[in-house]
Input
Amino acid sequence: MSYHPGVPRRTRRTAPEPSDPLARAIVQVARQAAEAAARRPEPAELQLGGAGSAARDYAEASRSPATRRAYRTAWRLFTEWCAGPEAPPGTQPLPASPALVAAYAARLAQLGRRPSTVSQALAAISVAHQAAGHPSPTRTAEVRAVVAGVRRTHGAAGSGKTALETPALREALSAIPEGTSRGIRDRALLLLGFAGGFRRSELAGLDVEDLELVPEGLRIRLRRSKTDQEGRGRLVGIPYGLHGETCPVRAVQVWVDAAGASAGPLFRTVDRAGRILPQRCSERAVARAVQRAVRASGGDAGRVGAHSLRSGFVTSAARAGAPVWAIQLQTGHRSLTQLHAYVRPATLFQENAARYVGL
Output
């Protein structure tokens, strides 16, 4: 999870008027906004009883749990910053002025936060304001100019995690202990995650009922994903592998037998004693499984994560000559631009236009 600057909560203090004209203007706007908020009537939805509660529940469900957690954290850190020494005395986070939000975005950038982290913080601020019935302060030209400057100065691309391509995956798999509950689960996690090009949320969310064994391999019903929040679902085929030790279908079968699972979560928690518990494993557990295997094989675990399986599959498939449309069908990427970010490095010298110019 991205980190934002935060300061310990403290009691609000009375301070003299700042001498700087801009600071005085910000203080005045913040005070006027706070007074307006205090006079604001109770929102109508709070007077609707059960219907209002149901509406809020449905609105909450419009975003994934991971997004909601990220927004809650980002909003909490913004409110803490507003209560801290860097914000003018008496600053209120809701409603916040565009000048205040712009200053916060600039401060995040000064502290070395990535542009994507700044954007996430602003998205959380925008959602909080809209939920409270206030116009979003992030849509103003002032805030947008700051964001554009942050991206231009610091770049929009993050370092990301290293793609775990087929050779590196084989090494990681060879280091997983055999015959242990955790080892059996981790092997199935890595192989299925790689062969399906799955996101960690998709892997963790699979149920046994989503799998169907067919002559060609496994047919998996992906009920919901990051780009399918409405749950339309899609089918993913996992063919048998060419080698028994790296076959995702066989690895999943071994895990299901070991877990004795006929229904419910496919990938389950394994405690320190090696006992398989009925609870679904977390998304973080998927990342830890990847890092644990890479570390055991002598690799740098800090450079890989759960996404390394997905990006590694795309890169490996592209390097092996798989057509882009087939890769996209497997991974469910909605954007070819995003997919090409992984395909391009792997095919940099395949069908390169410079080969045709006769140099």
Notes: Residues 200 and 283 are 6 Å apart (CA to CA). The chain has two domains: 21-154, 166-346. Residues 1-15, 40-48 have pLDDT under 50 and may be disordered.
